[in-house]
Amino acid sequence: MSATGLQLKSFTFNPFSENTYVLYDHTQECVVIDPGCSNKQEQQELQSFISANSLKVVRLLNTHCHIDHVLGNKFVSDTYGVPLEIHEADLEVLRAVPTYSTAYGLPQYQEVLPEKFLTEGENILFGETELQVLFTPGHAPGHVVFYHQESKNLIGGDVLFQRSIGRTDLPGGDYATLLESIRTKLFSLPDEVVVHPGHGPSTTIGEEKASNPFLS
């Protein structure tokens, strides 16, 4: 990734083993995607990396707003003075989190609402980096992914996993919609694109086209 200027750091946070991503380039501007940090130790791990690399957080992005992807939103927003950005179709998903966070054993969740809505076709700009926003509903009604065309890296949230796909049994989920998102948005990308998912190891578009049992 350094050959194209994009650097990517992942963290695995919270009881759901969610992948949080920090993307940055040589300008030291960075974006935080899906901060899942659920306690002081995880917050410190994220903050220490940002500090050690002298990074400036300029944007806070969510692929979607299920609890495991939003636990650190308020921490990042407050610490770095950046507003939350999500797709408008996931606003109700975000608003629902406080109603069930205690039942999931996470009563410490603090809500922060978005100040900006992401739309497909717009680009996320930071430093000298440009990410494309692709609308990929199915796992959640307002799910988006972020694609860096130059380095062929995709921050994919909970759409496509190594040999699996996102669950569709949560409110707003739809199996047929998810498969359509994968086939029309993700599988139209080059085979060598690396997918960095919301859980588990990375994979490639080509690998999943060839061997994902849900998409054969």
Summarize the structure in short.
It contains 6 helices and 14 strands.
Superfamily (CATH H level) name:
Ribonuclease Z/Hydroxyacylglutathione hydrolase-like
User: How many helical elements?
Assistant: 6
Strand content: 25-35%
Which CATH first-tier class would you pick? Alpha Beta
- End-to-end CA span: 30 Å
Domains, number = 1
Order of helices and strands: EEEHEHHEHEEEEEEEHEEH
Strand order, largest beta sheet: 1-2-3-4-5-6
Helix content: 25-40%
Radius of gyration: 16 Å
Shape: globular
Q: Given the helix and strand composition, which structural class is it? A: alpha/beta
What would your notes on this structure say?
GO terms for molecular function: hydrolase activity; metal ion binding. Its cofactor is Zn(2+). It comes from Rufibacter immobilis. Keywords: Hydrolase, Metal-binding, Zinc. This is MBL fold metallo-hydrolase. This protein is an alpha/beta fold. The protein has one domain: 4-Layer Sandwich (Metallo-beta-lactamase, Chain A), CATH 3.60.15. Helix content is 25%, strand content 29%. The chain is built from six helices and 14 strands. It has helices spanning 40-52, 67-70, 73-80, 91-100, 175-186, 205-211, and strands at 7-13, 18-24, 29-33, 56-61, 84-87, 116-118, 123-126, 129-135, 144-148, 153-157, 160-161, 164-165, 194-197, 203-204. The strands form three sheets. A six-stranded mixed sheet has the order 1-2-3-4-5-6, with helices on one face. A six-stranded mixed sheet has the order 7-8-9-10-13-14. Helix 4 links the parallel strand 5 (84-87) and strand 6. The longest helix is centred in the first third of the chain and has 13 residues, at 40-52. The radius of gyration is 16 Å and the shape is globular. 44% of the residues are buried. The model has no long low-confidence stretch (mean pLDDT 97).
